[in-house]
Amino acid sequence: MVQATDLPRNEEGIATVLGLLKQRFGEKLMTGESIREQHGHTTTWIKNQMPDAVVMPQNTGEVAEIVKTCAEHKVPVIGFGTGTSLEGHINAPAGGISVDLSEMNEILAVNAEDLDCVVQPGVTREQLNTYLRDQGLFFPIDPGANASLGGMTATRASGTNAVRYGTMKDNVLSLEVVTPQGEVIRTASRAKKSSAGYDLTRLMVGSEGTLGLMTEITLKLQGIPEAMSSARVSFDNMDAACKAVMATIQYGIPVARIELLDALTVKAVNDYSKLTLPESSLLLLEFHGSENSVTEQAELFGSIAEEFGGTGFEWTTSTEERNKLWQARHDAYWATLALRPGAKGISTDVCVPISRLAECVTAAQERLDELGFIAPIVGHVGDGNFHTLPLIDMDNADEVAKADEFVGWLNDLAISLGGTCTGEHGIGQGKKPYLVKELGGAVNMMAAIKRAIDPDNIMNPGKIVP
Amino acid sequence: MVQATDLPRNEEGIATVLGLLKQRFGEKLMTGESIREQHGHTTTWIKNQMPDAVVMPQNTGEVAEIVKTCAEHKVPVIGFGTGTSLEGHINAPAGGISVDLSEMNEILAVNAEDLDCVVQPGVTREQLNTYLRDQGLFFPIDPGANASLGGMTATRASGTNAVRYGTMKDNVLSLEVVTPQGEVIRTASRAKKSSAGYDLTRLMVGSEGTLGLMTEITLKLQGIPEAMSSARVSFDNMDAACKAVMATIQYGIPVARIELLDALTVKAVNDYSKLTLPESSLLLLEFHGSENSVTEQAELFGSIAEEFGGTGFEWTTSTEERNKLWQARHDAYWATLALRPGAKGISTDVCVPISRLAECVTAAQERLDELGFIAPIVGHVGDGNFHTLPLIDMDNADEVAKADEFVGWLNDLAISLGGTCTGEHGIGQGKKPYLVKELGGAVNMMAAIKRAIDPDNIMNPGKIVP
Q1: Are B194 and B239 members of one domain?
Q2: Which of A196, A200, A323, B106 has a CB 3.0–4.6 Å from the CB of A187, allowing a cystine?
Q3: Rounded Cα–Cα distance for residues B240 and A182 (Å)
Q4: Are B122 and B231 in a shared domain?
Q5: Please, where are the H alpha helices in B26-143?
């Protein structure tokens, strides 16, 4: 278990706030151990640090009340969505109050003419997309988990189709935020673009609850494409697959998704789902557009793949066939966990300039082999982003230490190649040392901003900044 | 002439800094009145406030030295690119040093495989695009003027093809910044996406030189499209034209440009360039993609335009014909100025959700008519952004006052429709009151950030924040 540092607790303030919030929120304030544990960090391997209580506000006014109460007594406030973040974002190293926003889950407006909507932070992306379907609209960002849109905004999430639609930073138009003082502000208008002052929207996106709590999110929407096509192609090795990706992006094909699975992942999926895919590097693609355009894109990609030695190229526009082609990707997470039953999958995340992707992925694979890890690699490679998932016996201290060392090594490598220590998971507790390695003196500016906006350091303390 | 408030001058500090910089930079420090006047605000109608000197650094180290010297003596530092900004961004209300970055105009790297490049801030967009052409690449943001990329970054510029390629916020990957303390930081890696801490890149983009000076800019590039098509269509009135735009965007046609010209602008262009266009609302479009796709897009748009009563629809893929179709747009600025020789064109800028565009443009047109102004309207309407250009006799105080009142009225209207007081020109001095109207308490957070990063308020004082 990787240790997360405990921070000094303000016992007196916490006791006072617990009393005040109990009085105000009754059963919506929960202090049972099991719910508190669920609201500490539960994913992957950072140790759980429970909050002192969990409160479930119903509206912005209640959030503001909670934050004001905590601010008055200098008690930590930790925003909580669905708890799917991966770097200890929701741990409470100094205790405090977990503000669970899952009951603030209303879709407040859909402005179909403007291709935008306004949601509360507890709305999940699947809930939103189910709601939008009848109107021919969708919200494209898909980080895998059915995360809350508040959490996705807070961690600057992205996922499989960021290569076409961008990340949360590109898809949030405006935010309502409760500041660390309990004031309610709006960061921007609903206009599609603006030069009106500092970009507080983008400052809040990815701030991981350290600068305020988002209570309303205005999101850009997309029309459901007229047509989609999917494609699949295998390569002898990662290098060839990555080079085909690079050429595809350079050529300007507007791929909606381009996912890389390594041979181990393909093997896992073959076993898990009784498939017969060639057990080598696999690319899966999706194209969005008009009927003509998705045909053209798939065929063009096919000819690029061939140039780089791709084999077994298949593509289709039929929904049923598309699902079959992509089954390997949908099953990848569970299939790879089944490679070593009982082990914990340590998902780590880097992103490099696409010209360095082949080098970075190949080196990672070699290093994992040297360490003797069973560790699948899956990537949103159109952006140069990939994950490794070493499967670790958490009772074996040596293995845990080696995995920890590997994560450090991989982050250093990505940074040395001009990349980032996290493409989409965020900093939380787990990546704080790498943030400093990556950005050096810029982290001082982040810390200055944090102190200016949250001088008492009550908003999610111990995350991102030193 | 609209007054910009003078701020208290630190005479002693300024005298000291002038001495130190003269010693260090010799002829690269200039104090002549005419060059100082050129480096104060020279566009539109805000009064010129000259700096005390203009200095032309050659590299990041020199910029850092200048800023450190100014910081030590608490003397204002005003970044200067090409001087084309429109809201008094480069005025020196408290005097100080204009740091003219136009000699830092090297293209430092083009990473064709990664579709990015690294430039110094004095590189202009035309210089960059000329340089890139042979490599089949281009940088899409086009604000009209041949602005410097530093200035475009500082004002979060956009322009005609933001509807497809976004604004500067979407096209800057990373920045090297000299902080108000004279430290050099880098805001991000060169990875296409990242969740590594606060988004300092986006905080700097649009900060108008108030948080630091950018000394290197890493920009996303695009492949020059395989094909382009252009189209032109007229409408009886603004309402129909705006509704056709809305439908086009909603339909998901990936238009590269969609520009609206009002009847007055078309009349001006007919006179100026001897054209015979119907003198009513005109839409001009451009589509980028494969040969098939630009044909498909143009034809699809044609059928949408017809539904909304569009007449005289023409489209073409030939370069020569495309230039002819778009001539009205290229000539619009000079043609409209010729409507009232000797008058000053007061360019103002708002942006509203596209569903409110017809209402906002129509109301603006009516109001301008009531006021008896000759005032063309041109819009980057795919984003809901438009400009009016009242032609004002600056010697007529009554007219100037009425124009000032009109600008206020239009900003209030845009804000009341859920829009912003500036889609692309920025706040500078001219829009400070409207920023507060638009974002209220959020401006306090901006001010807190400004104080944290620049506690002595030396970076471009008197701009954006109170």
Answers
A1: no
A2: A200
A3: 45
A4: no
A5: 33-38, 60-72, 125-132
Strands B107-111 and B97-100: unpaired
Please identify which residue in the block is written with the tokens 């809201």. Answer: B87
CA distance A158 to A426: 11
Interface of A with B in 351-410 (CB under 8 A): 351-355, 383-385
The whole-number pLDDT of residue A256 equals: 97
Residues of chain A with Cβ-Cβ distance to B447 below 8 Å are none
pLDDT of residue B2: 65
d(CA B388, CA B409): 12
Q: Which of A173, A194, A223 is the last residue of a domain?
A: A223
Could you report the per-residue pLDDT of B303-333, keeping only the tens digit for each?
A: 999 999 999 999 999 999 999 888 888 889 8
CB contact under 8 A, B442 and A170: no
Please, what is the end-to-end C-alpha distance for chain A in angstroms? Answer: 22
A184·B449 Cβ contact <8 A: no
Q: Measured between CB atoms, does B47 come within 8 Å of chain A?
A: no
At A55, which helix (H) or strand (E)? strand A53-55
**B355 with A113: Cβ contact below 8 A:** yes
Its ipTM equals 0.97
User: Of A157, A185, A190, which is closest to B442 when you measure between CB atoms?
Assistant: A185
pLDDT score, position B5 = 87
Judgement on whether residues A173 and A218 belong to the same structural domain of the protein: yes
CB contact set of A71 (below 8 Å; sequence gap of 6+) = A180, A181, A182, A456, A458
CB contact under 8 A, A453 and B449: yes
Q: Is residue B355 part of a domain?
A: yes
* pLDDT at residue A269, rounded to an integer: 94
Residue matched to tokens 């293209």: B107
pLDDT at A2: 65
Identity of the residue numbered B393 = D
A-B contacts (CB, under 8 Å): 288
For chain A, how many structural domains are there in total?
2
Inform me whether the C-beta atom of residue A430 falls under 8 Å from chain B C-beta atoms: no
Residue B197 sits in which domain range? Answer: 107-223
Task: Confirm or reject contact between B193 and chain A (CB < 8 A).
Answer: yes
State the pTM of this model: 0.97
Q: List chain B residues with pLDDT less than 70.
A: 1-3
Query: Are the Cβ atoms of B353 and A251 closer than 8 angstroms?
Result: no
Whether residue A230 is found in the same domain as residue A216:
no
| C-beta atoms of A193 and B449 within 8 A | no
- Residue A401: pLDDT over 80: yes
Residue B285 distance to chain A (closest CA, Å):
19
